[in-house]
Design brief:
The protein has 149 residues and is an all-alpha fold. Helix 2 packs parallel to helix 4.
Amino acid sequence: MNELRLRPKNDYLYTAKWEDLFFLAEHWQSDHSFYKDELRFLTHLITKYFILMSKEEKLSDVQQMLTELSKLELQQKVISTNIKKNLTDLGLLIENNFNDDQLKFRKDYLHCENELMTFIEAVKKLKKELFTITEQILKSEKKHHLLTS
């Protein structure tokens, strides 16, 4: 998961300038937006196409994926709120350079980053599972088509 992070390792989050953290949070927002669109596409793909072409033995797998997508969409909304809050707080910190508890803010910032990285990993895992099931469905459909021809 650390390879997804866009910052130097070690204690960077505890020593970085507010402007640098703001830049990272803006990048999170961009990545997050991409994955939000990707979830929407995967949901559309499954609901419109897989259910139509899938046989009963694969329907439970497809339904399980839809459930996981729903969980990820809820998680995505929470992360979106957290990123927006971080950007707002950072904007205030940049303007005032004052905060009663800068250490707490930096810990919250790290928590938000960790949530995003966990979310991204979960989306990638789900996509891999989706691709595997797609491959199985297509092979099954091809065999069925060859047998009925």
